[in-house]
Amino acid sequence: MMSLRAGLLGVGMMGRHHARVLREVDGVELVAIADPGGDPHGVAGDLPVLPDIDALIDAGIDIAVVAVPTRFHEDAAIKLAAAGVHALIEKPIAHSVEAGQRMVDAFAAAGLVGAVGHIERFNPALQELRRRIQDGDLGEVYQIATRRQGPFPSRIADVGVGKDLASHDIDLTAWVAQSEYVGISAQTTFRSGREHEDMIAATGRLANGVIVNHLVNWLSPMKERVTIVTGEKGAFVADTATGDLTFYANGTVPVVWESISAFRGVSEGDVTRFAIAKREPLRVEHEAFRDAVLGRPSHVVTMEQGLRTLAVIEAALESARMAEPLAL
Fold it and tell me: Which residues form the Gfo/Idh/MocA-like oxidoreductase N-terminal domain (predicted)?
């Protein structure tokens, strides 16, 4: 089988992992790397480090991965579309909805696969969670709450924590619930001396009635990546940092303690931690992109989906600026 010739734009903190995985995926051959900043992590190997996207295209590639700062996504994507190159763009799709729409239009007009790297969709805990919800293991879903906290990453300078991190939670929530956002309200704060927000707290509702809540920041000394889905039969807790999925069932044992027996809510039941296969999400994401390019069935995150996520994030940031909830 002939391999897809792959090019990688950007070999920084995220790009270095793309370089490794591109060399591991069957049916893909990494043939060119470009980064105007050179190769700080030494991942190029025998490949020369090209200066820009134009040189990458000139290398004769079939697919490209774009892992440069967000403000450069649009320029790279438009040039790749014009050259007939399928592209996987790191999240968020672009710095603005308008730029993202131009990217969507360019790839649609060229008949190319345009994908966005919302990697949490390929996390084993979330994939298993979505499957179990779809199978009815939770019954009716009431609420999805996420926490994504950690120290400030000095490498992120062109967007705030909303577009950089909260985009994960917005995308995974709509995907797990299989329903879109219809309203959102948010609060932000600026504590690190930059022009962009470093903490966002958002709440909203999906079209199917599920209440959502997100706490995201770059101000915590502890790293946390948790998704909690509460429903009719209990609650699922997915730790996406470890790929673990745990189910807390509603209790079925009669309560004999008189002072709490009159409470009409739920009680604690069995706790189950599932043993699931844990493949690396980035590798699964690349396989999905490869399959989409080859015309095979694929769950790749499309540019249209990435654009919808960005629209929700921008609405959340606008809600914080206006101090009022917004409909979507």
Answer: 5-118
Give the separation between CA 24 and CA 234, rounded to whole angstroms.
39
Domains in the chain with CATH codes:
4-119+283-301 (3.40.50.720), 121-278+310-327 (3.30.360.10)
Task: Quick: pLDDT tens for 33-60.
Answer: 999 999 999 999 999 999 999 999 999 9
Global pTM reads 0.93
Nearest to 66 by CA among 83, 89, 39, 93: 89
Q: Which residues pair with residue 6 across a beta bridge?
A: 30, 63
Quote the crossing angle between the two packed helices 97-110 and 303-322, to the nearest 10°. 170
Q: What is the pLDDT of residues 188-211, one digit of tens each?
A: 999 988 889 999 999 999 999 999
| 245 strand-pairing partners | 238
- Can you tell me the distance from the alpha carbon of 238 to that of 217, in angstroms, rounded to the nearest whole number? 19
- How many whole angstroms separate alpha carbon 281 and alpha carbon 293? 19
Which residue in 132, 127, 105, 100 sits closest to 116, CA to CA? 100
Torsions phi, psi of 285, nearest 5?
-60, -45
Token digits of residue 248: 């807390």
Question: Average pLDDT for residues 165-172, to the nearest whole number?
Answer: 97
Whether the ω angle into residue 92 lies within 30 degrees of 0, i.e. cis, is yes
Residue 19: φ, ψ to 5°:
-60, -45
